[in-house]
Amino acid sequence: MQGPDIQLFVTCLVDTMAPEVGRASVNALEATGRTVGFPEGQSCCGQPAFNVGLWDMAREMAAHTLDVLDGTEGPIVVPSGSCAEMLIHHYPALFAETDRKEQASRVSERTVELTRYLTSQPEAPAASCDGCEVAYHYSCHGLRGLGLAETADQLLEGVDRVELEGDTECCGFGGLFSVEMPSVSTAIMDDKLDKVETSGATMLVGSDVSCLMHMEGGLRRRGSDIEVKHIAELLEPGDA
Amino acid sequence: MPEPVTFLGRATALVGTHEASAIEMGARTLLKKRDRAAAEFPVMEEMRDRARAIRLHALSNLDRLLGHFADRAEEAGVNVHFAADAEEASATVARILEETGSRLVVKSKSMVSEEIELNEHLEASEIEVVETDLGEFIVQLAGDTPSHIIAPVLHMMRQDVGRLFEEKLGVAYTEDPTELNQIAREHLREKFLQADAGISGVNIAVAETGSVILVTNEGNGRLTTTAPRVHIALMGMERIVSRWEDAAVVLEVLARSATGQRLSVYTNVVTGPRREGEPDGPEQVHVVVIDNGRSEVLAGGTAEILACIRCGACLNACPVFRSVGGHAYGTVYSGPVGSVVTPGLHGMEPWWELPYASTLCGACEEVCPVRIQIPSMLLQLRAQAAEGGRLPGWLEKGMSRYTQTAVSPKKWARAKRWASLLSAPISSKGWIRHLPGPGRGWTDSRDLPRPAKESFTDWWRSNRGS
Ligand code: SF4
User: Fold this and answer.
1) Residue among B148, B239, B310 to mutate when testing ligand 1 (max atoms within 8 A of CB)
2) CB-based contact A46 B406, cutoff 8 Å
3) Pair (B110, B254) in one structural domain
4) Contact B261/B37 with Cβ under 8 angstroms?
5) How far is B443 from chain A (nearest CA, A)?
6) Is B290's pLDDT higher than 70?
7) Chain B: residue whose CA lies nearest to A14
8) ipTM over cut 0.90
9) pTM assigned to the model
C-alpha cells in the first residue's frame, strides 16, 4: 500500500492549543491534490528546550521527533516557521557529532514550512476573507531564518490588506522569553499592538501560532475585537 | 540578603520611562538612517562580505598583525604597550601620565576606556580627566553612564541636556542643539589649551604602517590627539586590520551602519608623534594594546564577536534594547553585541543572564556590517549557562518533566487531557486570565487560550485515523 504524499508535523502548540490550525492545514494541503499523513507519536520538536540552552533535553525531544518522522516518506510540512527552522537548521547542528547525523540531515532536507510548500505547488490555494482588512505579521524565524515573506504575500493576494508599520519587527514573544522576561516581552508587544490597532485592521494574520497566541492574548487583555488567525485558516475551501 | 539586581530587574524598572522612550526614538532614528544609507549604496552587501572577510582574517592572524603593527608604529616613534588586563592598562596610562608630568587630561570617546574604568582609576590619583565628546561630556557632567556604544546620551532628550547645562554650568536654559553644542565647546576650549595629555580610543589600527585611525563627528578627537604634548591611544587588541585597503572597506560600512553617513565627519589618522618641521602634533604618542579577556574569547566558541567594529547597529535593531536601553545591561557594552561580549570578557558570573535578554529575532545579524552570527552565539552562551546549572529551578525542572512527557506518546496524550481538564475551572469563554507561579509572567499582561478539549491528534484519530 502506498503511504500519503505529504506528512504533517503539526507542532505541539497546534496540537494542544490550536487544533483548528492543524485542521485548516490539512484542508489546504489536500486542496493541492495531495494526500496527507499524520505520523503517530509526534509531540514537541524540542525548540523550547533548545532556546533556553537545555540542549540535552532538546536532543531527547528532537531524537523522538526524528524517530517519528524518519520512517515516513515525502515532504514534512510544518505550519510554523519557527518549528520548521528548528528541524531544518538546528537538528543537523544538534546531532552533528552523533550517530543520528544522517537521520537529522534526512529529516532536515524533507522539511518545509507550510506557506512555502503551498506556494511551490501548481494548485496553491488562495486565501479569502470577506469583509476583512488584514494586517500580516512576518514572524522572525520564518522571515530571517527561512527567508519567508513572498510566500505569505502570494497566498494573500486575494485578500484586502492594510499596511502594518514594522510588520517585520519582532512581536516580543521569543518563546520562554515571554515568561522569563515578561516586562520586556510586554513592552515590545505593546509597541506592536499599538501599530496593529492604528493600522485599521480587523484581523491580524501570521504563520506562527506561538507569536499569534502572544499577540492575541495581548489584544484580548486590551479589550480589542481584532480577530487573530493563522494564515491556514484563511485558506480553507469556501472560507468555512 | 537582597536579591542582586539583574538585567531583568533593571529592565523592568526602565520599561515605560522617559529614558526608555528617548532610547526608542533615538535608536529608531539611527536605524532608519542606517537602512537608507545601506539602500543607497549599491555595493553595500558586497562591502559587508568584504568587511567580514577582512575582520575574520585579522582575528585569525592577530598575533602576527599585532607584532607587525608594533614594529611599524615603533619605527614611526610610537611607544607601544601591551596590557593583559584592565588594571595593567589603567596602570600603564597612569604611569605615562606621571612620567610626563600630566595633571589635566582631555579625552575623546573610547569604549575601551570605559571597559577598564580608566576615569575612576585616574581620578583616584588626582588627575583631572575631561571628556570632550559631547555625549561623553554630558554623561560625565550628569555623573551618569553611557546608554549606547556610539551615542552615549541616547537616553536623554535635548530638553534634559538643556536642564543639565543650566544646573551644572550655570548657563541660561536652551534646548537648541547648536547652542548646546556651543556651550560645551566654550567650556572645553580652555581645557584643550591647558591639557597636558590627550587620551583617545582607536577605531582601526593598520598593521602595515603602524597607524591608528579615529573616527568622530565632532572634531574633538582631532584636538585630543594634536593639541596636548602627549597622546595616549587605547585599543582593544582585536581592533586591527592588515592594510589600508582593508581599513577603507571597514570605514565604508562603519559610518553607514553607525549613523547612516557615507563617511564620518572626521577620520583622523595618527602615525607617530610630531616630526621635525611639522607645525603641530604631540611630542609623544603611546598606544596601549589591551587584552582584558580577549585572548580567552578568541580561543572559545564566540571568537567571531571580536570581529565587531562597534557600529552600534545591532543595538538600534534590537527590540529588547529599544524597549529598555543600554543601562539595563549593567555594563559598558550593551545590546546584542554586549550580551555576547560581556560574558566573554568578564565571565559568566554574573553575566550569564545577558544572553537571555533576547527574543532571538535575528534583527541584529541582519544589520551587522560584518554579519556576526549573534543569535547563534547567544544560543551557545545559553547552553553554557544552563550546563552550569544557572537556570531557575522551575524552568529546569519544568523542562525536564515536559521532555519526559513529550517523548512518550502515552504521557503526552494524558498530559493534554489533564491540561484541558485542569484549565476548565480557571478559564472563562475559552480564555485564562490568571495563572499561578511563573505562569503569571504570561497572564500579568496577556490572556492565555485554554488548551483545546479535543487536541489535533484526537481529532485526527476520530476523523482520519484508520
Ligand atoms: S556586532 Fe555588528 S552590528 Fe553590533 S556593534 Fe558590532 S559590528 Fe555593529
Assistant:
1) B310
2) yes
3) yes
4) yes
5) 8
6) yes
7) B456
8) yes
9) 0.95
